[in-house]
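Notebook entry, structure prediction.
Reason for the run: the old model in the group folder had no record of what sequence produced it. Starting over properly, with the input documented here first.
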Amino acid sequence: MSAAYDLYQQGRSHLRSGMPAQATVALEKAKRLEPEKASIREALGIAYFRIMRWTEAEAEFRKVLELSPADDYAHYALGRALRNQGRHDEAETYLKLARSLRPRRPDDEFELDEAS
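New structure, fully documented this time:
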């Protein structure tokens, strides 16, 4: 396995264990090794979101959307990060896009706040 993958797995393990701050350490290292990996950027965005670092979460989810524009989860997570920054109108655009990309999935199934 590659070093980036091992770091990604370590970060995901920290997220599942409810340790998002620790997850950021491994995931930031993984991102430096593989900056174009959407899975790493998404996990890092989730970690930032859970420690209320909204602008960093926003940046990670924007990058995921750059890499994968139809990613419904990234639209949803970006919308939530924007809403938490008080940018409600901009947030609603992304939340609507998330719902339209996955219309049968209610918002509460996205699990941004829960262990993934």
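Summary: The two ends are 22 Å apart (CA to CA).
The old model has been moved to the deprecated folder.
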